[in-house]
């Protein structure tokens, strides 16, 4: 069922707001992003171990490992270190997204096809498959970890609003084409996977048994920012429509331009007024919020 601000009940809205608020913090958190980088590290560890068994294209595999695959990790490590130290989040996220893009392209992009990695037994043994997005098992083993990391990178890119475009699972455009989105709404955040290979999308969409509530609506228009204006405070903002409806919260980096809101179930972007719900001051004091312990619950003995 598609969630829409035009049709949801008060109970549905309360639940959706709490989940959206939780996910926006999760997708931009040190803990969740470090987990993603760890998946790529695991792949690199398996890659390095497999190099101990010589392949016909051994020289090529070793050069790709040193120059390409490790290069992606360098970018990720720069980003995760900057985030943990409470430095500029825009720069930290940019490094993480750059590394994620590089890693994803090496296994799942055009270069993987042109160089022949999709057909190489070396990469097959790491879980890479010669398949497409119609396959729900798009990758296995360590390569699947890189695919999950790639989806986490996409979620971060969408959350911070830097050049993301994704597919919507429902409906079509006026010209009959696939509907797309650039920013989260209740429709895109809680939709079913638009393609079988994207079955983990959006990644990490799980919640603690006792989900913290979203802060109440910001009824004050003081400090609100209209679409197409600059955001002065880093954090989570909520969109207000002229008729008093309030849409899905969004995360904004400081100095980002406030976007319009793609009304759920439509192709119409609406001008809205954004109001601050929560200022993001995480990691500036060197600590990690206790809430992040809920992102990966420890198993009960």
UniProtKB/TrEMBL annotation:
Pfam families: Imm71 (PF15602), Imm72 (PF15584). It comes from the Bacteria. This is Immunity protein 72 domain-containing protein. It comes from Burkholderia aenigmatica. Residues 11-196, 216-296 form the Immunity protein domain.
